[in-house]
Specification:
Keywords: Amino-acid biosynthesis, Aminotransferase, Histidine biosynthesis, Pyridoxal phosphate, Transferase. Homodimer. The chain is an alpha/beta fold and 353 residues long. The protein has two domains: 122 residues, Alpha-Beta Complex (Aspartate Aminotransferase, domain 1), CATH 3.90.1150.10; 221 residues, Aspartate Aminotransferase, domain 2, CATH 3.40.640.10. Helix content is 38%, strand content 14%. It has twelve helices and twelve strands. A seven-stranded mixed β-sheet has the order 2-8-7-6-5-3-4, sandwiched between helices. Bound molecules: pyridoxal-5'-phosphate. Pyridoxal-5'-phosphate binds next to α4.
């Protein structure tokens, strides 16, 4: 604690990202994609350095937003982009969730939501998952006098995804405030709610280039929603940082969106490896929650999560272990390449056998 910190800064509990190890290790702890980004990305980078790097970027990111609009079949003015979807989420908290009423969220979900709630002084009203570890949309929609609803679909770190029908049922109940659906993992097998934005002006869908497009290091995220919601985000963004998306990120993002074949092949590989990994974990006695994301959440009836995490770390495999009461026994395992998952299974055999 420093005397120079404001009381609000003293009271913060910052988000703790998964470890980014420097040594050689099989890294299955922060849901990155094991495959390289689209080949066009490299060419775009080389062409770019020569004549563009000295200039400020377009503050409206028009070209990138137009490409996202084309990709998702929406209008340019229905797209917002930011420096990672974490930043887009932070701006959404400021733009939509500061109404002096609670924000409804699942009790187990992306751990950045409580951090932003704390930073922006928004009370979080959490709703337990159901017995199948699924987000309870009924409970989220039932509360009243709220400042909004936020959840991830697929949810993290459980991997379960709701159908569009379920989400539409929620949208029919919550019409007065923003419903934010965080689709960071949607490309690994879930249905996107983007098709609903024209019918529900309070629906905001966020997405990221970090997972399915293999660009976590670039920091690029977006939000898609009605023009009035996107305008709200722009108001906050233009009161904070006019250039959150650098011109290099825009260029690389466009190159990635252009290569649909690469995108589809890469996510299909991840999905195939996920199912193979799930079967092999189950053969070792693990309970594996059904996942539509690029990770699985798994627990073993005889081996504690912390012990498995430490045993894997010793054997050069890094997964994610959450030190909370409900998740203490679980490991969240990112889906890597088949070879990486073979090493994971071998290490688990050695630990459990
Ligand atoms: C990874 C993740 C994000 C953040 O993505 P970035 O674009 O890398 O900031 C947002 N939401 C969820 C649920 C995530 O898992």
């Amino acid at each position: 604690m420093s005397q120079y910190w404001s009381p609000a800064v003293k009271a913060l509990t910052p988000y703790i990202p998964g470890e980014q190890p420097r040594e050689r290790i099989i890294k299955l702890n922060t849901n990155e994609n094991p495959y390289p980004p689209a080949p066009g990305v490299g060419q775009a980078l080389r062409d770019y350095a020569t004549d563009h790097l000295r200039l400020y970027p377009d503050p409206t990111s028009a070209a990138l937003r137009a490409k996202l609009a084309e990709t998702y079949g929406v209008e340019n003015q229905q797209v917002f982009v930011g420096n990672g979807s974490d930043e887009v989420l932070a701006l959404a908290f400021q733009a939509f969730f500061c109404h002096g009423a609670p924000l409804d969220a699942p009790s187990i979900t992306y751990s950045f939501y409580p951090v932003y709630a704390n930073l922006y002084n928004v009370e979080l009203r959490t709703h337990p998952l159901n017995a199948q570890w699924e987000v309870d949309l009924e409970s989220l929609g039932a509360a009243s006098a709220r400042s909004g609803v936020i959840f991830a679909n697929p949810n993290a770190p459980t991997g379960h995804a709701h159908s569009l029908e379920d989400i539409e049922t929620l949208l029919k109940r919550v019409t007065d405030r923003v419903v934010l659906v965080d689709e960071a993992y949607v490309d690994f097998g879930a249905e996107s709610a983007i098709g609903l934005i024209d019918r529900y002006p309070n629906l905001l869908v966020t997405g990221t280039f970090s997972k399915s497009r293999s660009l976590a290091g670039l920091r690029l995220g977006y939000a898609i929603g009605s023009v009035e919601l996107i305008d709200g985000l722009h108001r906050v963004k233009d009161s904070f940082n006019s250039y959150p998306v650098d011109s290099l990120a825009s260029l690389v993002g466009i190159a990635a969106l252009d290569d649909k074949a690469h995108f589809n092949a890469s996510r299909e590989r991840v999905v195939t490896t996920r199912e193979r990994t799930r079967q092999r974990l189950e053969a070792l006695g693990f309970e594996v929650l059904p996942s539509k994301a690029n990770f699985v959440l798994a627990q073993h009836p005889e081996h504690a999560g912390a012990q498995l995490f430490a045993g894997l770390r010793e054997r050069g495999v890094l997964v994610r272990h959450f030190n909370t009461q409900e998740l203490n026994n679980f490991l969240r395992i990112t889906i890597g390449t088949d070879d990486e998952m073979d090493s994971l299974i071998e290490a688990l055999e050695a630990i459990c056998g």
